[in-house]
């Protein structure tokens, strides 16, 4: 057993008295905050979180798409989320990025309907520098018309990226039809016609910025390892002189009273399962959060995974494979919506009616008081378990402070939750779930039932052993939340031939199909009041079951979770439900609705064709369809054995928990019946070998790369990690690819490089742990570009890679990236799940704890080591390339002809860039037509790979 004390005694002393789950005054935030309004109107909130080394700065500005009131001017709040990184006369964009890199920071921004938030999490020692450069860009932002037009095209690229997502399109159409006067009529991206016209609105952009980017609309949140007095002195030094000239104010037009019901259908151009959404115009959060809290509680009780409706539609009848709610807190009255993805279009009207009947039920009955108390408990425990790192604490504050620039807003909301009675929910349901407020939106490729648009009235819908010695790693600390990982060294690489996807489906049948004693709906209901979760993650070599629960609820959690593993339910209905969901994940979520991610996993197919690494863990179409329930039973029996099990625990581990695990897990087989997966033999590209996936899509997604002959822990790994960071740090403007393709040319949303697999990269900064592999590949991910620019984007990526190989990193670049990584590794492993997951991975690779390992490797490294490793392991001449595009034949012809790739810009560009375009556009790729294959999207991951 390995025990790691990860929270020092001083932090323990700070945490214990400040983390009550329930407080006498209903305050949910366990911190003492210093709040102060500067003379210029800037609201400052400083919070010492008790966590060492890191500080998070969040700057929510009260401007979102809600503030875009003039016709033809939507999208500018989101646009400035981009432009704020363009630099000032004092600090250029490059200097800003360099300063953030020196601080080891992860920083970004996001825009909502109501506000735009700029955030960064970094080493505490760099607080003054971060405050200085952030203050400078808020006070002195400057950009040329050329930069303006370039960024406007990048925004269009982001819209194009999002256009393949059905849910985003539903929201866009739903709001356009639900609102007539209020700016909530458009999403944060804005109307497409406004985005396309944005390059012509340079003068208006200045007006928008001067109108809304002002201290009286801004809050500055500084949380983490801070001294309040010293921090306030820095704030006043750098932010106190922010006094912009007076600007006109605009009233946000109020929405007229809803006059529904409203129905709209989105005609989807490509294959997808239909969506049915039922929403109502709901309340604003403030000034009194009581109504919004009551509505949110109704959604929790009637539409969550523990609800009777979810159980019936998803688990029992299996007519729906996705079911979720969307009722975010907003400044003005907003839509509260239920989303359902329907497996059979003929069932769309039935699903709509069942959702409406449930809303009617909420109007007709009063919920059970005990059930309501359980929901309140779930909310509070769920919130508390999220307070495990400085970055998340600061982010949570930003999401609520923006309303009135008030630290106490979140406390007021949870105080409202605490006061709710069943009669309050009944009152709010009757006030808001009415015919006039009803908004129904559907999405489908082909025809839905003829009566789907004939909305019924709400009144019509109205109506219920001996312990074993475990391979155990314990990270003991003061956090009152336990993260428990059961990691089995078995994954999709162990799928039998012809049953691809079996490991993934077997894991789903453990966590999402119940135990023999309890159906999954009963387990979800029992876990609800303790806000616990039990989830599975499957990759090539690992299956990880993760439980998260409050320490004081550990007995209840194990009572529910362990039987799911040791005595699974294996019900035929659950099996059919989970198999259908897995097939839809492959065919709908990956192949049909996510071209950019499809290009990444398809590249792995090229590299590892003929091996179990050639297909995603979700499997293949033929493989999933061939799996039987007996296959799942046999796999679980053979795979989940003590000999393959590693256990990790993080948190304030209760007495008795480890002992009970030892007793109950003794029921597992001692050894696995599966053979070792072996090391997959990768294919080696000879020259440039291209696969084009033909799909009806607006943009072209690109991924290119080649196999690597090393993995984490090998001699050159850390050196290549540093080189990869410089070339293409994920979701970071510091990377070379990002700078040359997205930043200066505005060709797409982003460009990154990897030497380890990184799943879910669209949604997160860091890769999930517990995806360790025996073989990896180097890849460059070029997010979707306009089809006419696909050839040029490929040439730029290859050119930049060749330049890196030929010239290496400079001493200065090496030092900058090394400094960044030595600090950023703390951000990368800041959460409970990351700390525990990376520690288990380190054991698998046979290295020290990840942060220690990387910092030690970086400390001993030289620039010559890195450049030598680059030359040994990277190649720009021998690459596999995967495209996903509509005009596959046209792209093949362009690649084979190797003709010049022209570039055109909406804005004037420096001559140096234009000269570079001439050079790169003529770069000879020498791709033989015989090395270019075209495959239809429906064949990808269809059968044997």
UniProtKB/TrEMBL annotation:
InterPro entries: Metalloenz_LuxS/M16, MPP/UQCRC_Complex, Pept_M16_N, Peptidase_M16_C. Keywords: Signal. It comes from the Bacteria. Residues 1-23 form the signal peptide. Residues 52-189, 480-618 form the Peptidase M16 N-terminal domain. The keyword Cell cycle does not apply. One of its GO terms (molecular function) is metal ion binding. Residues 206-379, 627-820 form the Peptidase M16 C-terminal domain. Belongs to the peptidase M16 family. This is Insulinase family protein. It comes from Marinihelvus fidelis.
């Amino acid at each position: 057993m390995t025990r790691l004390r990860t929270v020092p005694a001083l932090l323990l002393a700070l945490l214990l008295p400040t983390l009550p789950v329930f407080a006498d005054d209903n305050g949910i935030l366990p911190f003492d905050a210093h709040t102060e309004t500067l003379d210029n109107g800037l609201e400052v909130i400083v919070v010492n979180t008790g966590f060492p080394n890191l500080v998070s700065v969040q700057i929510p500005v009260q401007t979102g798409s809600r503030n875009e009131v003039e016709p033809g001017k939507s999208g500018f709040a989101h646009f400035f989320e981009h432009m704020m990184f363009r630099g000032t006369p004092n600090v250029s964009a490059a200097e800003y990025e360099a300063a953030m890199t020196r601080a080891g920071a992860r920083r970004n921004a996001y825009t909502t309907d109501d506000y735009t938030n700029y955030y960064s999490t970094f080493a505490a020692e760099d607080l003054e520098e971060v405050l200085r450069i952030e203050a400078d860009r808020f006070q002195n932002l400057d950009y040329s018309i050329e930069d303006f037009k370039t960024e406007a095209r990048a925004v269009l690229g982001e819209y194009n990226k999002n256009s393949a997502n059905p849910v985003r399109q539903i929201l866009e159409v739903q709001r356009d039809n639900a609102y007539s006067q209020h700016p909530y009529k458009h999403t944060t991206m804005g109307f497409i016609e406004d985005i396309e016209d944005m390059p012509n609105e340079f003068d208006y952009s200045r007006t928008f910025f001067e109108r809304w980017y002002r201290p009286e609309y801004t809050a500055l949140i500084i949380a983490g390892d801070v001294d309040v007095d010293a921090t306030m002195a820095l704030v006043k030094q750098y932010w106190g002189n922010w006094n912009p000239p007076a600007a006109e104010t605009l009233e946000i037009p109020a929405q007229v009273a809803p006059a529904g019901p409203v129905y709209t259908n989105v005609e989807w151009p490509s294959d997808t399962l239909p969506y049915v959404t039922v929403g109502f115009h709901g309340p604003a959060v403030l000034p009194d959060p009581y109504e919004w809290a009551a509505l949110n509680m109704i959604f929790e009780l009637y539409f969550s995974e523990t609800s009777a409706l979810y159980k019936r539609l998803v688990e029992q009848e299996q007519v729906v494979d996705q079911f979720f709610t969307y009722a975010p807190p907003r400044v003005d009255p907003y839509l509260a919506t239920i989303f359902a993805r329907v497996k059979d279009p003929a069932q769309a009207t039935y699903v709509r009616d069942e959702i409406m009947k449930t809303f009617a039920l909420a109007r007709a009955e009063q919920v059970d008081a005990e059930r309501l108390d359980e929901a309140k408990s779930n909310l509070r425990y769920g919130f508390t378990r999220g307070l495990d790192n400085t970055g998340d604490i600061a982010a949570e504050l930003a999401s609520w402070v923006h309303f009135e620039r008030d630290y106490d807003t979140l406390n007021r909301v949870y105080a409202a939750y605490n006061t709710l009675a069943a009669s309050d929910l009944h009152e709010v349901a009757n006030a808001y779930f009415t015919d006039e407020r009803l908004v129904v939106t559907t999405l489908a490729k082909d025809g839905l039932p003829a009566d789907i648009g004939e909305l019924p009235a709400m009144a019509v819908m109205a109506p219920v052993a001996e312990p074993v010695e475990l391979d155990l790693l314990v990270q003991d600390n003061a956090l009152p939340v336990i993260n428990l990982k059961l990691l089995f060294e078995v994954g999709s690489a162990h799928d039998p031939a012809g049953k691809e996807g079996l490991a993934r489906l077997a894991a789903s049948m453990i966590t999402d199909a119940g135990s023999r004693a309890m159906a999954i709906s009963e387990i979800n209901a029992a876990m609800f009041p303790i806000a616990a979760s039990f989830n599975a993650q499957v990759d090539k070599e690992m299956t990880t079951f993760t439980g998260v629960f409050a320490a004081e609820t550990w007995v209840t959690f194990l009572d529910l979770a362990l039987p799911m593993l040791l005595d699974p339910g294996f019900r035929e209905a659950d099996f059919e439900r989970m198999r259908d969901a897995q097939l839809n994940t492959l065919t709908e979520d990956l192949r049909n609705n996510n071209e950019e991610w499809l290009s990444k996993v398809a590249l792995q197919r090229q590299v590892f064709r003929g091996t179990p690494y050639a297909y995603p863990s979700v499997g293949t179409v033929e493989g999933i369809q061939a799996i039987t329930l007996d296959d799942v039973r046999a796999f679980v029996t053979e795979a989940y054995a003590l000999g393959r099990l590693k256990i990790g625990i993080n948190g304030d581990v209760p007495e008795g928990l480890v002992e009970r695990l030892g007793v109950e897990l003794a029921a597992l087989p001692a050894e696995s019946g599966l053979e070792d997966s072996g090391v997959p033999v990768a294919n080696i590209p000879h020259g440039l070998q291209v696969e084009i996936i033909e799909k009806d899509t607006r943009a072209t997604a690109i991924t290119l790369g080649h196999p690597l002959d090393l993995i984490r822990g090998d001699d050159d790994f850390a050196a290549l990690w540093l080189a990869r960071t410089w070339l293409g740090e994920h979701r970071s403007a510091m990377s070379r690819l990002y700078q040359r393709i997205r930043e200066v040319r505005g060709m797409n949303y982003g460009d990154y490089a990897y030497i380890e697999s990184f799943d879910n990269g669209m949604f997160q900064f860091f890769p999930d742990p517990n995806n360790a592999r025996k073989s990896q590949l180097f890849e460059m991910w070029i997010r979707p570009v306009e089809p006419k620019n696909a050839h040029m984007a490929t040439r730029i990526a290859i050119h930049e890679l060749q330049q890196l190989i030929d010239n290496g990193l400079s001493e200065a670049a090496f030092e900058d990236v090394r400094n960044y990584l030595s600090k950023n590794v703390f951000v990368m492993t800041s959460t409970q799940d990351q700390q525990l997951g990376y520690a288990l991975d380190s054991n698998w690779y046979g290295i020290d704890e990840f942060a220690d390992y990387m910092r030690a490797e970086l400390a001993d490294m030289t620039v010559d080591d890195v450049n030598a490793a680059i030359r040994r392991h990277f190649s720009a001449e021998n690459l596999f390339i995967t495209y996903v595009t509509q005009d596959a034949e046209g792209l093949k012809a362009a690649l084979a002809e190797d003709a010049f790739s022209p570039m055109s810009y909406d804005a004037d560009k420096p001559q140096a860039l234009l000269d570079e375009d001439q050079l790169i556009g003529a770069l000879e790729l020498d791709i033989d037509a015989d090395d270019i294959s075209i495959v239809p999207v429906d064949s990808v991951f269809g059968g044997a790979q």
